[in-house]
Write a structure and sequence with these properties.
The protein is mostly beta strands and 162 residues long. The chain has a single domain, classed as Jelly Rolls. It has 1 helix and 13 strands, in the order αβββββββββββββ. The strands form 4 sheets. Strands 1-13-4-10-9 form a 5-stranded antiparallel β-sheet, with no helix packed on it. A 4-stranded antiparallel β-sheet has the order 3-11-5-6, with no helix packed on it. It has a two-stranded antiparallel ribbon with strand order 2-12. The protein is globular and about 40 Å long. The chain starts with a helix and ends with a strand. 14% of the residues are buried.
Length: 162
């Protein structure tokens, strides 16, 4: 092997080793995310998407987000939702939420790509205190039924980094 080939091989090995060390040092965040399409982009109050996930680590804190995607034709600056949460061995708890989507001075609060706007709205919920399966259900409770121009709705759970 020539000297230039040895240097190339040594450089390639060094870069590979550096990449492995870099990737191995990253913190991972336990995460659940599920996004469901709203049939015909018209969210009827009878369409109540359900999200099921497991919590194993009850010592950690989690952040819950509602994910909503709509187009620019969405008629409101907010959305009213009923969120039902049921933990293992617990009765369902229902929360009525008003989630802001726009302001008069800033426009849409979410991230826009062309005419699609995505919102990830953090909720303030109690920690997950028991290990096991949790079930969340989302229901739109706006006066307009069906609620037009809503493309997707979902739920995201992230473990907070301490």
């Amino acid at each position: 092997m020539s000297g230039s080939q040895n240097r190339f091989l040594l450089s390639a090995c060094s870069l590979f080793l550096l990449a492995v060390l870099f990737l191995g040092s990253c913190n991972t965040i336990d995460l659940y995310e599920k996004i469901v399409p709203v049939p015909e982009h018209s969210w009827k109050s009878t369409f109540k998407p359900q999200f099921k996930f497991q919590i194993k680590d009850t010592n950690s804190s989690y952040q819950v987000y509602v994910v909503l995607r709509h187009n620019e034709k969405y008629n409101y600056n907010n959305i009213w939702l009923n969120l039902t949460m049921q933990g293992p061995g617990q009765a369902p708890q229902k929360f009525m939420l008003e989630l802001p989507l726009a302001t008069t001075d800033k426009g849409w609060l979410g991230t826009a790509m062309d005419d699609l706007i995505e919102h990830r709205i953090a909720l303030t919920l109690d920690s997950f205190r028991k290990p096991g399966e949790y079930i969340f259900t989302l229901e739109q409770v706006m006066r307009e039924d069906p609620l037009e121009n809503v493309m997707n709705v979902g739920l995201r759970i992230e473990k907070k980094i301490q």
